[in-house]
Amino acid sequence: MIDLRSDTVTRPTQPMLTAMMNAEIGDDVFNEDPTIQALEHYAANLFGMEAALFCPSGTMTNQIAIRLHTRPGGEVICDRYAHIYNYEGGGIAVNALCSVSLQQGERGLFTAADVAASIRRDDVHHPVTSLVAVENTMNRGGGACYDFSELTAIREVCNQHEIPFHLDGARLFNALIAKNEQPKDYGRLFDTISICLSKGLGAPVGSLLLGKQEHIKAARRIRKVMGGGMRQAGFLAAAGLYGLQHNIERLADDHRRARLMADALSDMPCIDAIIPPETNIVIASLKKPFTPDQAINVFKAFDILAVPFGSQEIRFVTHLDFDDNQLETFIQKLPDISQAIEQG
Ligand SMILES: *Cc1c(COP(=O)(O)O)cnc(C)c1O
């Protein structure tokens, strides 16, 4: 099987497993796991931020950040495509008792002008604008990357209104590699950043929330409330640390393969359009009457896994366990797959 459903499907490599097996561990709820502490320090330093918190998932790091920055009755400014809005089980409402102001960004990327226009006046009728949250790369937008200048402009609007600024950076390293940007520039811009270790970096589990000391202290308490306090999880942190130290630069290979994949897919008559991939996500929309479920099933019959991604779209994601040989196999199979889809 060539599994392109997500970059979360990767298995730890032998050197990563070795790092995990050799991890020094302790009870992290007692603050006694040296490997988790090493990971948190390493990531905080990488971004020039004060502190970090290791969590089981990116959903948890995002949800903790939202809880942290808001009060019940607040409103979160985010895009209609945002992971925090679409793919976290309604967590903004459940965990933070907040509503959302949904932006209609281009490929999920909204602007400083959009934010400025969405901030609420001080009026008892309105929710209180409490947080601006962006996603980079933007999953639903085909792995699109923000221009750093736009993020800086959004930060200025946040500053004018004293509103905190959170980044869902589940795939931030893909953006940094694609745009040749530095983690510290992001560390300076945001109050909190969530990064995933279990996607492009190839770790089996884990995400980090980065921020100021006081924020991370409060985040640790919220993590406990959510049931995310883990014990000898240094085995998992070792994998994340290994990923941060070894698997960032290689994301460029995933991006190259995604572009080649998009080129090949665009030759299929059943495909209407492909969002030109900036990073490792390829979203292709099908001509009607072809449906995502039908196309996915045909791909599966040819040992290729993808996911339906909207009413007319299918998504492929490149990753650490997808190499040039598999790309070649993928491309070679496309004419037959194409024919099978056309024949219904
Ligand atoms: C994967 C992802 C997350 C976190 O997902 P988990 O599966 O909970 O780790 C958050 N935001 C985006 C954009 C993602 O793609």
Structural write-up:
The chain has 344 residues and is an alpha/beta fold. The protein folds into 2 domains: 14-246, Aspartate Aminotransferase, domain 2 (3-Layer(aba) Sandwich); 251-343, Alpha-Beta Complex (Aspartate Aminotransferase, domain 1). Helices cover 44% and strands 17% of the residues. It has 14 helices and 13 strands. The protein has helices at residues 14-21, 34-47, 58-69, 83-86, 91-96, 112-118, 148-161, 172-179, 183-189, 213-225, 234-246, 251-265, 292-301, 324-342; strands at residues 2-3, 51-55, 74-79, 99-103, 128-135, 165-169, 192-196, 207-211, 271-274, 281-286, 304-305, 307-308, 313-317. The strands form 3 sheets. The protein has a 7-stranded mixed beta sheet with strand order 2-8-7-6-5-3-4, with helices on both faces. Strands 9-10-13-12 form a 4-stranded antiparallel beta sheet, covered by helices on one side. A two-stranded parallel sheet has the order 1-11. α2 (34-47) packs parallel to α11. The longest helix has 19 residues, at 324-342. The chain is globular, with a radius of gyration of 20 Å. It starts with a strand and ends with a helix. The model has no long low-confidence stretch (mean pLDDT 97). Pyridoxal-5'-phosphate binds at residues 57-59, 62, 83, 135, 139, 168, 170, 196, 198, 207. This is GntG family PLP-dependent aldolase. Residues 3-286 form the Aromatic amino acid beta-eliminating lyase/threonine aldolase domain. Belongs to the threonine aldolase family. Its cofactor is pyridoxal 5'-phosphate. Keywords: Pyridoxal phosphate.
